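Quick log. Single chain, no ligands specified.
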Amino acid sequence: MSSEPNFWITSYPNQYFIYNDLSPENTSYGMNVSGYGTSEGTPIVAWPWQGGLQNELWTYNENGQILPGSAGSMVIGLGGALQGEQGYNVVLVPQNGEDVSQQWFLQDGHLINKNNQWVLALASSEISATPALVCVPEGSSYAYGYHWTMIPATDTGPLPDWKYIQTQLPEANDNFGINISEDQEAYFTPLILWPWQGGQANELWAPQEDGMILSKLMHESIGPNYVFTPLALTFTGPNSPVSPNTVFTGPGTLSAFNQWIITEIPSQKHPHDLPQVTIATNEETPMLLTVQSSSPSQGDPVVLAAQPADGPAPGQLWKMFPTNQINTLLQLPPLSFPKLKPGMVKAYAYINKQLGISSGTIRSQYANLAEDLTGWSVLIGAMKKAPDTTEKDWKELVDQLQLELVHASVVRNFFSNWATLEANIFQIDSQNLANIIEWAGLSDESMIECMWSSIIQGLIYTVATITLNEELAIFQNMVANLLNTGLSAANACPTGPELDTNYSVEAADLGNKLAESFSSLNTWIQSCIWIFLADWRKMQKIVHLIGAGGIDSLAWQPSLNLYPAAFPGYNQVVLQMLLPSKWQIFWNPGQSCQWLPASNQFPLMYEGINTTAFMAEIGDSGTTPDPAMMSFIFGTGPDSQMMGIVNPNDFFFGINGWNFTVTIFSN
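-> predicted structure:
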């Protein structure tokens, strides 16, 4: 082995999962700080993927040092010498930029210590025994598993895990799923089948660890204060006002009548597909969520029925489509590319040489956007067989590399489409912004308080919830998905922006600040390309969704104008920043407000009293906004296409981005 590296580890904003190639097919074992330790001498071991915990994610600095996410002041170094063998235990040591024994480089899949040129390996061939890591001469009889793959990973954090629960009846051609009848925010509302509506609150559900399945639709409790609590998927219990075996909405608090057991039935034919599931009551004799008709219609009830002796009936099978597809994929266990058989190693080196790759290998270049992967695929297909390689090994290697190149090209194209869309949508229209500032009743000198993360979170919320037409619904969800992914990636990285830092800016300079924020966000979205292009599992999964149809599809149609899907969301977010600097919400219990235009008042109940809510200047309930501004906000004026639909409930309660001060008159 050459003593000089052909690829130095360099600093990169993402963290890595460092995967060992002895891992079995369905479990990814990687470098892990034992016991989440932070002290000097803590062993480094091989451990199964835990979903992105900080003691299994690693970053690299310009010196080639490897730093754990769980102990940033420590690095991987050499501990005590092995007994009876050349080598050292690998442990955490205090970071020292002058100590070359803390520096590592990657060559041909080996992590090599710069001080002694020895390799990082496992102390046992039984990786399932979670062996310690050692640094030994290559070929040492004491160590195993020399080959490592660095897979970019991100701790996406706790994200809303809303799902659309779709029946798998073959006759249900309209994407029928479980829906709360008539969008009612009330208990004991029956659940029905209804076509996909693009991600409305009454069709989205979140399974919980305690067995509850919560609705995104919130129940409003009337009392001394307004309380919004989730509705939950509930079945008939004692004293229920609904008929036996009916499924309906109930309180989102744990009880014996809203605990469910979800059982997966993986697809044998299509391993990349989401598994079918059954959803059963948590009883001694379980009952299953069921569609009784073999040819369901819109509005058919969802009921409970016993499972037949030979297995679930077709009407008892469901799929749970995630609304955060990309974040869901990011949390999958990492997987390196297929190992090369012994007869392919020289052929692989031959292909790299023929392509002129002098640094790294073809697989390490998938994320190099300057390289023409399609051209490489053509060149590989036209190459003569490498010397000293069998026809079988050559064909298998070429087929695998061409498959990977096609997958990598599809992923690149997907993110390239996003970059084009971002350039079209989020390049700020200065005249539009000036108009909104004027509608809000502000001057160019008005000071606006902003927070970077709240801008993006507000945009995610509004883009995902404004449904302009059915054709755009799935693509709106995709845009919100990418925004959420970028925000998560930025949040997970130690070198990312300060997301929760407040800043003040004059209204006239708001456009520049927003443009800066969106540009930064796009940088983090694009950084996710690396994660998908270095991980064979994630690459296959996202390509499958890009080429698929249906609710969870990521199929991109650049010809479809997505500008209308995101522009109203942008306008709403801008108003959510502008309005609270001048306006607030007032509640007037027991009093009518006849002098107000209908667009600037909202009836509600407060402590059992009919109450009128309205917007006026801060501290001055007598100065109310121009009716034209209210018409603009609620989409009832000539510029309604610019705002979509603002929920008056959100607006006058000051929630979901509308963070107004609320004052209640005392009578």
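The chain has twelve helices and 30 strands.
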